[in-house]
Design a protein that fits this description.
The protein has 15 helices and 49 strands. By secondary structure, it is of the alpha+beta class. The longest helix has 16 residues.
Length: 827
């Protein structure tokens, strides 16, 4: 099968492009684009946007794309498909003015069989209409054709797309047994005798295993065939050594290759039980997980290989070994990065089943489209060793209803019928699962005296009518834990958890140990947890084999759900804790919007046991002594800075993260205090001092011996721009990007986090800025602007080729600073 990129030559149009619209001359902006393309990120945000803080006040609207293309006469007797890896959402595809197919789900890949619609003797036209109802998601969804599109051309005798499946049956005594299943389709006539050949090669190209079988293929048939191959002394894939083999499956007739599929595959053995937990290649692995959404900050949802690898690499550097793709199927780009770099994946199906969480989400279509979308999810993931489990849903209220919970069985059974080599989980929020039982719970609590009348009123107010789950959880506080820990919650979810291999607990730490006694055969994963609770959660993970890991919300900051992790000062969080305009980001990520590590990431790395050195962070002195209003998804407002101009001599709180016994804090060489670590929270020591520019230093001790030091130096007032590109070359055709990392530093190259310098970006040569901005969660700037202020001393520009080879020069300028040029070659 010939698979080529179909990303070039598209034209973007505002509006749906319907026949009536065309007749009356409707439609707005029209421009040429190269896919992937996120239309929403290119629009001015609007404080009156209907979805408001949910999508970060970005625009959601109906749009369409058109493209002209030609096919050769040589392809006239072949099968033609188009694969769309992601269109948000409700995609309608028309080829040469005829309706060719659709896909409502905005996060799944889908195929269009274009064979009967295309011409081979003249131009073809394709139109893709994207009908984005508002609101359609609980976070920033983006809009448009935001992932790759592929044109696929195959002989009438071909391998069905995504149908070659490799699975490790066993690895023992120096031999791996691999099952290979291939589905052959023949759309021609007559009977043909062919051979089906599979080969596995190592990184040097040496064939390490192969098999070849004869196949008699009848006309208009579609059948699956299984083979087994055996690899001697296999090199195994795991998070530390992600070794990838190359596979090739071919259909041959008289030694002529009719069709072929190639890809990579990792050999690894999965095991799961209550005694050892999760084992990979015989070794127990505790999942150091993080949940992520799909946007990439300044570039929106447009998915590029470089952005995917950047994200996985940064997470690995911070100690993560697992990602939960929340709450939708992971992109091919991100899966490839996880394979390559050694990151485990929980790939999730959807945020909704049959009940919508916002008016126009996937819940409108799930009951008709689930089988199509689940099948594509599994087929996409099958050969990726990084994927160890599928999640059939996130915080699905149907899980507590005996009839609606049967959707869980349908989903789990379907996945197992497609892939029996991995595990199935369901990420359940027990609070949502028992909403239908709330009256019964409150009545029993009142009868037992466990809940006074005022508490019942507070609970009812916190729940509200049609309450949004995150607001409800924040408002209920400790009451939520009591409800989740109730017998009713346990009983209500027994069937839902019985349908899966691993019980996913969202925010249910209070049940971990109790449920081990109630359900001794249950394997549990903390599928979504509060970031501040890692010290408690990880102790339980290390203590109990049946508890296989922890996925915090969230590993990476994201657009939408604006202000879910914000900190307010002087007044507590209100009943509705989402932030008003201009807030656009959740601000709860361990990494910020541009992937810089926030201080809490170092604390997490220490809790996991991967960082021995101490880490200093400082709470802004502006708010010293003022009440800090926290949400469940915030832990501290500390930043790594000793630049607080205007607060000289004012009190300031310093945080030290370290796994040690004692820590001694120094300011400009003078001892402030020496104190015990972990008095309030594990691996944290807090100090009170006054801000004096110079050097802030900590020395830590274990068993009376110095165990490490850290220091922050005040950057000088005179700053300059420092910038570099994280790749020397990018593809000239715009198929990938690189980042230009921009910092505001002093002459000694000390970062000045206090600098909010406005930087202007411009480009000369065959390149363009794909996105430019900072991690500021409440900036009014657009990512398509050419000027942006530094946030915590940092900015980022994404650079993309525009079609020609040559040298791209990115120029950065700021008032009072010498201009800086960064060069990238487009090839």
């Amino acid at each position: 099968m010939r698979k080529v990129s179909f990303n070039q030559g598209w034209v973007f149009h505002e509006g749906g492009g319907g026949s009536l619209e065309s007749l009356i001359g409707g439609g707005g902006v029209t421009k040429k684009v190269t896919l992937p393309h996120d239309a929403s990120i290119e629009k001015e945000r609007n404080p009156e946007e209907l979805n408001g803080s949910g999508n970060g006040f970005f625009r959601e609207e109906t749009i369409h794309y058109t493209k002209e293309f030609t096919l050769t006469e040589e392809d006239a007797d072949k099968n033609i498909w188009l694969e769309f890896e992601g269109v948000y959402q409700n995609a309608f595809v028309y080829i040469n003015h005829s309706f060719a197919g659709k896909c409502p789900y905005g996060y799944g890949n889908f195929y269009i069989d274009a064979t009967k619609y295309v011409h081979f003797d003249r131009k073809n036209e394709i139109k893709v209409v994207v009908k984005n109802g508002v609101p359609s998601g609980r976070w920033y969804t983006g809009g448009g054709i935001y992932r790759d599109v592929n044109l696929m051309i195959a002989d009438r005798m071909h391998l069905v797309p995504d149908s070659v499946h490799l699975a490790v049956i066993d690895v023992e005594d120096g031999q791996a047994v691999i099952r290979v299943e291939s589905t052959i389709e023949y759309t021609g006539t007559g009977v043909r005798d062919i051979t089906l050949q599979v080969q596995l090669k190592d990184v040097d190209g040496t064939v390490v295993a192969e098999d070849c079988i004869p196949v008699t293929v009848e006309e208009h048939s579609r059948r699956a065939y299984r083979q087994k191959i055996y690899v001697e002394n296999p090199k195994l894939w795991d998070v530390d050594t992600p070794y990838l083999y190359h596979y090739s499956t071919a259909l041959k007739e008289q030694n002529v290759v009719l069709d072929q599929e190639e890809g990579t595959f990792g050999i690894r053995k999965l095991q799961l039980d209550t005694r050892h937990g999760l084992r990979i290649n015989g070794k127990t692995v505790n999942l150091r997980g993080g949940c992520i959404h799909h946007d990439n900050g300044v570039t929106g949802t447009a998915e590029f290989a470089h952005a995917a690898e950047f994200r996985v690499r940064k997470m690995k550097e911070a100690g993560y070994n697992a990602i939960r793709s929340s709450h939708y199927p992971m992109s091919r780009r991100l899966l490839a990065a996880c394979d390559k770099l050694g990151m485990l994946v929980m790939d999730e199906f959807a945020d909704v089943w049959t009940s919508t969480k916002v008016d126009y989400d996937y819940g409108m279509h799930m009951s008709e489209w689930w089988e199509h979308d689940v099948t594509n999810l599994v087929n996409k993931d099958y050969n990726h060793p990084c994927v160890i489990m599928y999640s059939i849903g996130n915080e699905i209220p149907e899980t507590g209803n005996q009839f609606d919970a049967q959707w869980g069985k349908l989903l789990a059974d379907k996945i197992r019928s497609l892939d029996d080599s991995r595990y199935v989980t369901n990420s359940v929020n027990l609070m949502l699962s028992i909403m239908d039982h709330m009256g019964e719970i409150m009545e029993k609590a009142a009868q037992s005296g466990a809940m006074e009348g005022s508490a019942q009123g507070d609970t009812a107010e916190a729940i509200g009518e049609n309450a949004e789950i995150n607001s409800m959880m924040s408002n209920m506080g400790d009451m939520m834990d009591r409800l989740i820990a109730s017998d009713i919650a346990g009983k209500a979810t027994e069937e839902a958890f019985g349908q899966v291999d691993i019980a996913g607990y969202n925010y249910a730490t209070c049940r971990y140990e109790r449920d081990a006694e109630l359900y001794p055969n249950r394997i549990i994963v903390g599928s979504e947890t509060y970031p501040r609770d890692l010290d408690v959660n990880w102790e339980l993970v290390e203590k109990h084999p049946y508890l296989i890991g922890d996925f915090s919300w969230t590993a990476w900051d994201y657009l939408g759900e604006a202000g879910i992790g914000k900190i307010t000062y002087g007044n507590p969080q209100g009943m509705s804790f989402y932030a008003a305009y201009p807030y656009k980001a959740a601000y709860c990520g361990v990494m910020n919007l541009i992937g810089d590590r926030r201080p809490v990431s170092y604390w997490r790395e220490i809790i996991w046991g991967f960082r021995k050195a101490p880490y200093l962070a400082v709470q802004p002195p502006k708010y010293h002594g003022v009440e800090h209003g926290m949400t469940n998804w915030s832990m501290t407002d500390a930043v790594r800075s000793w630049n607080w101009k205007g607060y000289e001599g004012k009190p300031v709180t310093v945080e030290v993260y370290v796994d040690a016994d004692e820590a001694a804090l120094y300011v400009n060489g003078g001892l402030v205090k020496k104190k015990v670590v972990g008095e309030k929270k594990r691996c944290i020591a807090e100090f009170e001092t006054v801000y004096t520019p110079g050097t802030l230093e900590v020395v830590v001790y274990k068993d009376g011996t110095e165990a490490g030091r850290d220091q922050i130096v005040t950057a000088k007032d005179e700053v300059k721009i420092s910038a570099y590109a994280d790749a020397e070359q990018i593809p000239s055709d715009g198929s990938d990007i690189c980042y230009v990392e921009i910092s505001i530093v002093d002459a000694e190259h000390n970062l000045n986090p206090d600098a909010n310098t406005a930087v202007t970006v411009s480009v000369d040569g065959p390149g363009a800025i794909q996105g430019f901005g900072s991690a500021d969660p409440e900036s009014t700037e657009n990512y398509f602007d050419n000027i942006a202020k530094a946030y915590e001393g940092r900015l980022r520009a994404a650079v993309r080729g525009t079609g020609s080879a040559g040298m791209i020069t990115v120029t950065l300028q700021a008032e009072g600073c010498e201009a800086v040029n960064v060069q990238i070659e487009a090839v």
